[in-house]
Automatic annotation (TrEMBL):
This is L,D-transpeptidase ErfK/SrfK. Pathway: Cell wall biogenesis; peptidoglycan biosynthesis. It comes from the Bacteria. Transmembrane segments: none annotated. It comes from Bradyrhizobium ivorense. GO terms for molecular function: glycosyltransferase activity; peptidoglycan L,D-transpeptidase activity. Its EC number is 2.-.-.-. Keywords: Cell shape, Cell wall biogenesis/degradation, Glycosyltransferase, Hydrolase, Peptidoglycan synthesis, Signal, Transferase. Residues 86-215 form the L,D-TPase catalytic domain. The active site is at 175 (proton donor/acceptor), 191 (nucleophile). PANTHER family: L,D-TRANSPEPTIDASE (PTHR30582), L,D-TRANSPEPTIDASE ERFK_SRFK-RELATED (PTHR30582:SF24). One of its GO terms (biological process) is cell wall organization. InterPro entries: LD-transpeptidase, LD_TPept_cat_dom, Transpep_catalytic_dom.
């Protein structure tokens, strides 16, 4: 006769044995690599990575993204004049700056000049030179444009650009620009602007005391600067 009580006893014994083996295996594994019951409480927090160090902005290459028209590029030209070598002559109507070299020649630069109503003429001297100058808009400019900053530190974003040469006791300067596309146009409040590359070149060629002649807008004489080929 089939004894069900014996079968049940055997099944219960087998099940208990399997459970015991599993418990031993789990115990051995836990001993090798214990697992925390509450990892979100026991695991130390991961440190947040420090923010990246901000490097100082670099000056942009004027000619890298914008090419000046050929006539406005720096070049040696024939330029007959009685002015001494080293003199700067501003040809306002043609938007040129000439640095007299002597022997009937001059270095010619394209420039941006004052907009309508803001051109001027006369003779000044360079009284100060500055690299990457700060910009403090004069009161007259702030009165016209009250949204302007009262002061801006020098750098690539400064509207005075890479170099500035101050003219006498006036508010006018020969300076660089971070907007090379304005060379050859009439947009300033009276200052004379060159590309940063060109103003750096001019800066290296002149000194404090240099004579600067600014021709009037009404002087419509023909452009005397013929390119030397």
């Amino acid at each position: 006769m089939f004894n069900s009580s014996k079968l049940n006893s055997r099944l219960a014994a087998a099940a208990f044995g399997a459970l015991a083996i599993g418990a031993v295996a789990f115990s051995n594994s836990a001993a090798a690599a214990p697992l925390p019951m509450f990892p979100f409480l026991l695991t130390p927090p991961t440190e947040t990575a420090p923010p990246p160090v901000q490097s100082m902005p670099q000056a942009q290459d004027d000619e890298g993204s914008f090419q000046l028209p050929a006539r406005l590029r720096r070049q040696v030209v024939a330029y007959p004049t009685r002015e001494a070598p080293g003199t700067i002559i501003i040809d306002t109507p043609h938007t040129y700056l000439y640095l007299v070299l002597g022997n009937g020649q001059a270095m010619r630069y394209g420039i941006g000049i004052g907009r309508d109503g803001f051109t001027w003429s006369g003779t000044q001297t360079i009284t100060k030179k500055a690299e990457w100058p700060d910009w403090t808009p004069p009161p007259e400019m702030i009165a016209r444009q009250p949204y302007l900053p009262r002061h801006m530190a020098g750098g690539p974003g400064n509207p005075l650009g890479a170099r500035a040469m101050y003219l006498g006791g006036t508010i006018y300067r020969i300076h660089g620009t971070n907007m090379p596309e304005t060379i050859g146009t009439r947009v300033s409040s009276g200052c004379l602007r060159l590309t940063n590359e060109d103003v750096t070149d001019l800066y290296s060629r002149v000194s404090v005391g240099t004579k600067v002649i600014v021709l009037p807008m009404t002087d419509r004489r023909a452009d005397l600067g013929a390119t030397i080929r």
